[in-house]
Write the structure tokens for this entry.
Amino acid sequence: MKKVILCTFLLFILGAAIYNLYPEQKLPSNTEIDYIIVKKSNRQLLAYSKQKLIKTYQISLGDSPVGHKEFEGDEKTLEGVYFINAKNPNSGYHKNLGVSYPNKEDSAKAKTLGKLPGGDIKIHGIRNKLGFIGKFQRLFDWTNGCMALTNNEVDELFYAVNIGTKIEIRP
């Protein structure tokens, strides 16, 4: 019985290591991503160039992903059309791309609730010094409302996406 448990455990560890380390298709060199769609219900970020889908990424979202972000601290990932408005190579989460939340409507909605809208919504990697987590970050929603990728994936997008790129975030 102990041998069966040990073998099962070792197979699980081997499978997990293969999952995390198995290389995925890279974004082609010199690709310029000019449109991003996020499908929250599928946990996917779709990267487009000249109206052609180039790559689909698996992402993690905010701790409370259902519905549109209404105020600071609600842990929701926003919905709607926004723009990439910043790039930070020295983020606390590897690198990040800033998203133009809040817009006027977001601020007005939060105000009616007597709350602040929040901000600092990003597409980012894994918290610094925890990059070894790799693809395991996809297994649950863990951000404060951002969209998270592996560090290698955010590196790809960081160099392929320009400030001003449209991002459409769907339920």
About this structure: The chain has a mean pLDDT of 91. Strands lie at 33-39, 44-49, 52-58, 80-91, 94-99, 122-124, 147-148, 161-170.
